[in-house]
Design goal:
Elements lengths: L12 E4 L5 H12 L3 E5 L3 H13 L4 E4 L6 H15 L4 E4 L14 H31 L4 H4 L1 E6 L2 H5 L5 H21 L4 E8 L4 H5 L4 H4 L11 H8 L10 E4 L4 E4 L17 H11 L19
Parallel strand pairs: 1-2, 1-4, 2-3, 4-5, 5-6, 6-7
Antiparallel strand pairs: 7-8
Helix pairs in contact: 1-10, 3-4, 4-7
Length: about 300
């Protein structure tokens, strides 16, 4: 008989935004199952409190937080909730999100602002508040290697590769991917890693924009629980040497998303009339943009 495995996140303290349902709920359940203590954030107070009750009944340690983390006050109180309850916060999981899908010509300013606030602004604010906590600990003399802070952001294939009708959502998620890179560089001095997960799952948010079971089920593996194992690993000590990465997680695959990189290159051109002749061969040699799943188009079939 094999020895019982030790919980990956025993004693760690995490705060998860948008955790009342969908992927966030699966994250909270998975972290608690691996020994973590969690703050369950959701503006749906009933959902947040119901999950805390379920986690507690199962022997876990959790507390609800129902403020809007796209505000400075809400983000501050989220981190404070963990510190007040357990004395520190070890990980923040930025998962809160909404969808307001419209074609670009019909997209309202309010829908643009709302999506960027819930996705991008909340990610910035919560990460900043956690980082300030970790900085205070290192300034107080704690070894950065002992702080072991973790930030796990949530991006999307739409933000990495694009999709029609989701300009606001893509802009927010693409910005979060870039934010993840910069934050990973800046927070290393405080013993923190910053990574992101790109999930594929059937959730109340995807259903709300018309991506129902019948459309998505053909791909299989859309239970949000498929996403959470990678999240648990990123929160754990096992991932201490990994930062600035985006992991793709779903029931179909676990992968590393590769970012923008320089492609075919030529010498600089001073005359705009010469740009076309130089850039055309570079474009022909460059890889095409990936589709929304991150796959490159197949090359055209050759004639037999």
């Amino acid at each position: 008989m094999s020895a019982e495995r030790a919980p990956l996140c025993a004693g760690r303290v995490g705060a998860i935004t948008g955790a009342g349902q969908g992927i966030g709920r699966a994250h909270a359940e998975a972290l608690v199952a691996e020994g973590a203590r969690v703050v369950v954030n959701d503006v749906d107070a009933d959902a947040a409190h119901a999950l805390v009750a379920a986690l507690t009944a199962a022997g876990g340690d959790a507390v609800a937080h129902t403020e809007d983390v796209s505000t400075a006050a809400g983000a501050t109180s989220l981190v404070a909730a963990a510190i007040d309850r357990w004395g520190r916060v070890d990980a923040v999981v930025n998962n809160a999100g909404i969808a307001r899908d419209r074609m670009l010509v019909n997209l309202s300013e309010n829908d643009w602002d709302a999506v960027l606030a819930v996705h991008l602004k909340s990610t910035f604010l919560v990460t900043q508040r956690a980082a300030q906590h970790w900085r205070e600990r290192t300034k107080a003399g704690e070894d950065p290697a002992a702080v072991t802070g973790r930030v796990v952001n949530t991006v999307s294939s739409v933000g990495l590769y694009g999709n029609v009708g989701q300009a606001n959502y893509a802009a927010a998620k693409g910005a979060i991917a870039s934010f993840t890179l910069v934050a990973s560089m800046e927070l290393a001095r405080y013993g923190a890693t910053v990574n992101a997960i790109c999930p594929t799952a059937l959730t109340p948010m995807t259903e709300a924009v018309g991506l129902g079971e019948s459309e998505l089920a053909r791909d299989g593996g859309l239970d949000p629980a498929w996403v959470s194992p990678a999240l648990v690993w990123l929160v754990s000590d096992q991932s201490a040497d990994v930062t600035g990465r985006v992991l793709v997680a779903s029931g179909q695959r676990l992968a590393v998303a590769e970012g923008w990189h320089r492609g075919p290159t030529a010498a600089p051109v001073a005359d705009p009339h010469e740009v076309d002749a130089v850039i055309r061969p570079l474009l022909a040699a460059a890889a095409p943009n990936a589709d929304v799943q991150g796959d490159l188009p197949l090359p055209p079939a050759r004639g037999g």
